[in-house]
Amino acid sequence: MAKNPILSPKPPNLFFFSSPSSTFSLLPYQKSFNLPLKPNSSNSLRNYSTPPGTECPVPLDQQPIIEYQNLSTSFPFSWASGDLVEYASRLLATGLSFGLLVGLPVSWFGSVGSDHDQVKVVLGSLSSGVFVVTMAVLRMYLGWAYVGNRLLSATVEYEETGWYDGQIWVKTAEVLARDRLLGSFQVKPVLGRLKNSLVALAISLFICVALLINYEESQKELQKSSFEAADRVVAGVYNDDSARTFEPDAFCGEPGLVPE
Predict the structure, then answer these.
(1) pTM of the entire structure?
(2) Residue 70 CB: number of other CB atoms within 10 A?
(3) Which of 89, 182, 223, 250 is the most buried (most CB within 10 A)?
(4) Of 154, 147, 168, whose CA–CA distance to 64 is shortest?
(5) Which residues, other chains included, contact 163 with Cβ-Cβ below 8 Å and sequence gap of 6+?
(6) Angle formed by the axes of helices 64-72 and 118-152, nearest 10°
(7) CA 80 to CA 133: how far, in whole Å?
(8) 3-state SS of the chain: helix, strand, coil percent to 5?
(9) Taking the CB of residue 223, how many other CB atoms lie within 10 A of it?
(10) Residue boundaries of the structural domains of the chain
């Protein structure tokens, strides 16, 4: 018995996005694209171009998917898309290196006075390392956010020859589905990781600065109290105030003497 082509169900075509570590599928698009995340050669950049038959006037280096490929392989933006342990270890190594090689000498030689306060030097070095790591993560976040917005947007702003001839191209349905799939599953997790890193680094930097300010205030109060005690008695110099302190009976009846 022959099957009725109208009644027989047709399996839907899948839209595939494959990477070296995972594969995603989305229904019901009719095309399939194989998009390696990190191509090993320049020839593989053709895999990121628009599908055959799609007229895309955007230059190749300004297409969002090409910008994503360049960003994911560039320094230091590739750190954010890598393994979490490797990402954290690189940030830690960057902060420690800057704090020891730059922050520590500056804090040591820039301290006021003949004696160096070790607590201030350590806190200053630690704060400088955290600050540099925060700036690096902020730069990575801005780069990934820019590429993510261009992938998720339905239009692409590009320049043909220069800044004076900017154009806008509306993505086709296939290109928009491909870019949004890439932006949702690849860029958004990276942005979430960078946001969490920025929050943790901001809290750490605030704690370091607060400790440094609190320590300096306590040191100033201690020095002020010591100076006040030293002003009352000066070795080898007669002073009425110091004399009243040590010999109150000799100044009985004089103004300025507060009876106890």
Answers:
(1) 0.67
(2) 14
(3) 182
(4) 147
(5) none
(6) 150
(7) 13
(8) 60, 5, 35
(9) 10
(10) 59-230
